[in-house]
Design a protein that fits this description.
Helices cover 62% and strands 6% of the residues. With 830 residues, it is α+β, with helices and mostly antiparallel strands. The longest helix has 33 residues.
Amino acid sequence: MSEHEPSHETQAGAVADALEQARPDDPAGLALARARVAGALFGGAVGFGRFHVMERLGRGGMGVVYAAYDPELDRGVALKMVHVAGDRELALGEAKALARLSHPNVVPIYDVGIIDDHVYLVMELVRGATLREWIANRSRRERLEVYRQAGLALAAAHAAGLVHRDFKPENAIVGSDGRVRVVDFGLACETTAPDTSSRRRVGGTPKYMAPEQATGAVSPAADQYSFCVALDEALRSDADDPPGWIAAILERGRASDPAARFPAMADLLHALGRDPARVWRRRIAIAAAAAVALTAFFVGRARSATAIEPCSGADRELAAAWEPTARDAELARIARLSSYGATLAPHLRQQLADHDAQWIAGHRDACLAHRRGVQSDQLLDRRMACLARSKTALATIADITRAADAHALPDVARAASSLPDPRQCGDLDALALDIEPPAPALALPVATTRAELERARVQLAAGRAAVAHALADRAVASARTLGYQPLVAEALLVDGQTQMSTDPPRAATTLRDATQAGIAAGSDAVAVEAWARRAYVEGTTGDPSKALAGLEVIDALAARTKSSQFARALLYNNVGSVELARDHRSDARAAFERAIAIARDVTGPGAIELVAIRRNLQLVLDDRAERDRLLASVEADLVRVLGEGHPDVLLTRLVRATSTLDGAEAARLLAPTCESLEQHDGIAFYVAPCWAELAELRIALADAPGALAAADRAIARGAATNPLTYDLAGNARLWRGDATGALADYQAQLAKLAPVPDEPWFRRYERAKLVLGIGAAQRALGKRDAARTSLTAAVDDLAAIARDHAQTANERRLVRARRELAAVTADSPR
């Protein structure tokens, strides 16, 4: 036995201790208890999934909470296990809904999942004191302040459609930073007897439970009752009764009849903030100020900046979407994940700061314009609804960022690029042209469904089509139930977008329905966008000759659709794409140029999608310098929006180096691009072609060592099985002087590329490259006749391809083939 190995007695003691601790007083602790026993029996850290469990922090009404370590994210977390006796999926759904709640006073949830009969929640690990512990020896004002923070958390939850169900002093922690975090949102997961009702049973602590909870009826009013009981208890803990005005408020908040309580938690908090003594002092101050108003008007204006201004507080409202401290922590985390993360983090920080400043300014402007009476209630509602969309997008980006690992960082950048531009919410002309709002009774459910659609749009921008489709599908069902036709059209449009990459035929059907619904509802922009996306799907995956049927009608509709430049620009871009698929180059060019003229005025999330117009236009231009100018502008815009080192930026550089640039300039661009491509698993397919193209450039520049080094990098990244680099292994052998081995490689790969009907041009191109290699190897081996035949065929095929696809990479192969053919036909053999 090693001196470091524990004795049998020690092992037995550890097992006994583990078994003692493994007797959970709540079923939710059972899974972790088993893990603790396994740790004692077999050694190592106590694990649950990827988490290392360190200690039990406490037990809530619905589960057990443990301190744990997450090795993947290198941070401590709180791990809560919730026992589910019946409806596992419903419980998981509630957990996910809670995870979407982002507020400074709600403990953030990083992850949720389900194992056996347990839902687990991974939360921020907050060290501090409970409200009950913290209020000891504190003043009444301090107690009111911490409870006010807890009340803000409850109000935020209610706004998100959630109810805490078990608020009490033990379920709110005052952190070391002085900020309150409400914890232990009890999931009502337990069911009644499985053979009887499916009605959910609601847990709670009897002392703080609202009377109606005993019957299973739960609403935000129940949290209001619990809050008032707890606050009354806190204010009486120093043996003094609370002031009469507070007592009256608390009495109303804990009325037996829920209808007699405050309409909402926000109203209760507002009442608690109106201390009569402070109000009276303020009135006296106002009266005193009025006495000297005529002589101090301008001085008063200068000093008023230090007072609370009307329409202030937008920053606090926006912070509910992504609390600044939590955001900073997330950005610091992603900066540590990879070299790309280190580049992305400061880019995102600036991008989000710019958005916040514009959002806050827009919110204040809308409020002030309404207060001054220069804008109507309806226009204020439209501006605020527009800003709410941006706020929802920000919260969704926060969710995506929290869940992102190193591989998902490009998705975070794409999600951030989808943030709506808050400045558009001040475009009064566009807002005035908007469709009529829903009836007042539908306003809230319509807003809720639109928020769901906004989350779907952001998820789709991040490349998460499956998640986006689930959200959009639910939104379609909700919209149809509500019967508000503009919302039906919007939901169908987003749903169709989520299907475009996974199920094109179904996407075409959904988008056709969206077009019809948009026209019927008067939502011209939705109709135009849906038609454009449907045309693209059918024109690029089906019969392009039929994809543009009805263009003259939608073109007329687009001409009058001034409220959405994006939809009009997308229409003409997609028309150009279909015309290109039909090989109508002049028509395609005209459509792309029309789209570019419109796209110049588009900002916000649509702008990043519309950079494709310039990429498409360069395909139909003959002037290589003009083509490169367009691609360089695309690259610059992608860097501005997505950040340096993003895969989309790198792929654009690869296109430039293989399409419009040549010689040393192309080589200088490719060398760092290939290196950076290797950082992203999602675009690993392009790594070998990048190195292979650099090898070709090095050979053309008479740099054989550089060419072989690049070829070896390509081979190491799977060039032999990549359909764009079948000739690379043979090239490397040939450049090293092994013509026999090279010829065998070329011939073996060519055997895999027999011509097929209607094959794409790049398949013919790969075959021509292999024939070129065969001819070069035959020439090196002295087989002049065979080499002449092979090289002649290669020149003919490459010339035809270069005529139709004028890319510098194609032309480089053609130059090489002609050089080889000229050498083999010379009088003196080499």
